[in-house]
Amino acid sequence: MKVSIIHKAILLLGISLLVLGCGRTTSKNMEEKTVTLSEEQDALIDAGWYVRSTMPSGELPEEYGVENRYGQQDKYFDIEMGNGCDVAIKIMDAATDKCIRYVIVPEGTVINTQMILQGKYYLKLAYGKDWMEYNNGDGTLKAKFTRNVAYGRSVDAFDFGKKNTSQFVDYKLQINVVNSEVQNNFNTVSISEEEFME
Q1: CA-based R_g, the chain, Å
Q2: Residue 5 phi/psi, 5° resolution?
Q3: 129/53 Cα distance (integer angstroms)
Q4: Residue of 106, 109, 110 lying closest to 130 (CA atoms)
Q5: Helix/strand/coil (H, E, C) string of the chain?
Q6: Average per-residue pLDDT in the chain?
Q7: Which pLDDT does position 35 carry in this prediction?
């Protein structure tokens, strides 16, 4: 009985350390998970980055450097993320190259991003795992995936109608990663991390 209580205490301690970002590796006991950080993740932690206790989901607030803009009519993206990774999507105004929304869609979920302003938009996408963040000290955050990362940009723009029309417009985006290959129902080209972060 005491051995079981000790194992449970060790497991809870290991999980607590992982959640707080302090534990780099837990015991290899069969009851516990082994977590190994990459060299990049170790370097980011040393530089002040941290792992959130929960993965964000849906639209990110302004702390992530985006001035969210909303329209008054129901024009929206349905974003369905399949298996293989999580995805961060920046909805970019094609006329100004400004980001109007920043959305996180975890693996195996669907997010509905509503009230898109009328206009044309392209997407910047970051695929990956292990979301990490950095507090800039001015109320803003930097964030990115740090494992199995790839970046892309949609080839075509998504047209949400002309100004002052009441046309109902929506797009269903389907994203999946199979054997490290991205399979979307829209065309993308690869971009760099720097281009995604702009």
Answers
A1: 20
A2: -65, -40
A3: 14
A4: 106
A5: CHHHHHHHHHHHHHHHHHHHCCCCCCCCCCCCCCCCCCHHHHHHHHCCCEECCCCCCEECCHHHCCCCCCCCCCCEEEEEECCCCEEEEEEEECCCCCEEEEEEECCCCEEEECCCCCCEEEEEEEEEEEEEEEECCCCCEEEEEEEEEEEEEECCCEECCCCCCCCCCEEEEEEEEECCEEEECCCEEECCHHHHHC
A6: 79
A7: 61
- Give the type of residue at 84: G
What count of Cα atoms within 13 Å lies in the side-chain half-sphere of residue 34? 6
CB neighbour list of residue 13: distance below 8 Å, 6 or more residues apart: none
As a whole number of angstroms, the distance between CA 49 and CA 140 comes to 13
pLDDT in tens, 84-126: 899 999 999 999 999 999 999 999 999 999 888 888 999 999 9
Is pTM beyond 0.85 here? no
Instruction: Tell me the C-alpha distance between 154 and 116, whole Å.
Output: 17
Q: Which residues contact 27 (CB under 8 A, 6 or more apart)?
A: 10, 14, 34
Q: How many Cβ atoms sit within 10 Å of the Cβ of residue 144? A: 19
